[in-house]
Amino acid sequence: MYNDTSENEARIRKNWNVLIFLAGTVILFSVILFKLFSLQYIHYEENFQRSENNRLRRIELIADRGYIYDRNGNVLVRNRPSYQIALQALEMPRKKAARDSIFKKLLNIRDAAGVRLFDSLSLDTAFQRIRWVRTRPVRILEDATMEQVAVIEEHSTELPGVSVIIESRREYPYGTLASHVLGYTSEISEEQLKLPEYESYSQGDRVGQKGLEQEYDKEFRGKNGLKLVEVNASGREVRTLPDVGGYIPPEPGLHMVSTIDLKLQKAAEAAIPDSAKGALVAIDPRNGEILAMVSSPRLDPNIFSLKRRERNKGWAHVALDSMRPLTNRAISGVYPPASIFKLVTSGAGLESGIISETKYYPKACTGGYQYGARYQRCWGVHGNLNVVHALRLSCDVYFYQAGLEIDMARINEFARRFGYGEKLLGIDIPGEKAGWLPDSASFNQRNKRLGWRWARGLILNLSIGQGQMVTPLQQAVFIGSLATNKGVYRPHFMKELQDSQGNVVRRYEPEIIRPGTMKPETHRVLMNAMDSVVNHPGGTGKKGAVPGIRVGGKTGSGEWKKGQKTHAWFAAVAPLDDPQIAVAVIMEAAGGGGSVAAPIAHKVLMAFFGKEEEE
């Protein structure tokens, strides 16, 4: 009896086990069948697309950036090929262990000299970035050498997701030449990506920084293309698939023909030592085309196209330099205009009829001028002078008296006609600063914190250009438009933009931005005075003369700090009877304008007119 019961229980238990097994089997196969149904029918399109994505890759083709040429077709900025070692997020294994293995392998790769190609910090940063930068390569080695590329290719099977890509980088064949004008390119920053003007840009894009590179970035940039490629199980490219709409060629950026004259630019840079602080602007006053622009000290924009470590080192060097080589002094340096401003005081007096070519002031120059309790010195003893003689000798005493009689309202009005003042001239590179023409209201407002108030005696200083603020660009524009008497043209660098076939897409049309005219008699007197400054044996600007060319100009020595040498100014235009070029030079804390700045302008004018320097 007992045995029968035990056998029944065993049989029942066995049947239940079989039943549970069969039920489990049915459920398992049901799940498998449902999953197969789901994969092949319900989620067919989604899975097909995933499969295609694993097999196909969309690769963005970066458009070549447009070149910059000088006015005669010489290349100032071009592109060069550059090998980059990069991480491709979509080709990397998803498992952390596999990625860690790739990380370690990269860290252990060495070149022929036994030096590691990658450091752990930059590699770690790159591996972090690919978590959110999925569709673009993340560079881990820029400007790789052929040897480094070969090492990576040797290990390619062990490094899925690590690829060699070829990009174009900016190249400036003349190094520091016109560096402040041309600017440079670098990878777009996080701050820039937040700005509305960069809404069409993405992380990793290279954009123009400073100069023409920044101002015309959208024109130079072009339009990126796209190619669809088939990849193997390792993520390596097998073939391109153009037949299925998988290739959109990139559209290269526009080329610029600039107004810069390479020969003249070289002459200007050779004339100003890189160890000095100074600036030079040469402009065609007939249309506003800038022929040359120098800001010293200079910098080499090629450093921004180097690999990260070298680039950071170069950037730190220029950023921390007390000489401020990153500053374009030609457009953002503001200085007292010094005695060049005496042309403004003279022009205002002649226009208003307060002075004339034959007028002499009762107080002759004996070395200074007494105004109330104040004795204002002159740099020399000049005797009794008219306006032409006073400009030739740059006599302060004459202009102390003239300024008091003319008054600042008339002087400032004449100055604004010819480009001075608080309004920008609108040059087509970023960073331009405006000047300042003081009057009682603006002076009181500007110096309210110091408790200074406008007094009539300030006109003595202002009439000789000590107190206003101007840029070298404003000085060049002023002297040029003063000579043409046909208006102030907007200064500019862009002559025309061309497509890759050389067709002109846009041409700059000269634009008059200030009246820049005066009475014929005023013009005649000022031109005679400027002629006398340079070509008379006693003129302060005789070192700016050019044989066979009628050069007119004005010197200046701007006081800026007690006990320091003055800023040396010289502004010139030539030929006076048919102005083709205007030049303004400033050398900071260098001394007299006639002895320091005029010889620099002389070298530029000699180069412009094709003259040979005498030994």
Automatic annotation (TrEMBL):
The chain crosses the membrane at residues 16-37. Its EC number is 2.4.1.129. InterPro entries: Beta-lactam/transpept (IPR050515), Beta-lactam/transpept-like (IPR012338), PBP_dimer (IPR005311), PBP_dimer_sf (IPR036138), PCN-bd_Tpept (IPR001460), Penicillin-binding_protein_2 (IPR017790). It comes from the Bacteria. Residues 536-560 are annotated as: Disordered. Keywords: Carboxypeptidase, Cell inner membrane, Cell membrane, Cell shape, Cell wall biogenesis/degradation, Glycosyltransferase, Hydrolase, Membrane, Peptidoglycan synthesis, Protease, Transferase, Transmembrane, Transmembrane helix. It is a single-pass membrane protein. Its main location: membrane. The keyword Lipid metabolism does not apply. The keyword Magnesium does not apply. This is Penicillin-binding protein 2. It comes from Fibrobacter succinogenes (strain ATCC 19169 / S85). The lineage of its organism: Bacteria, Pseudomonadati, Fibrobacterota, Fibrobacteria, Fibrobacterales.
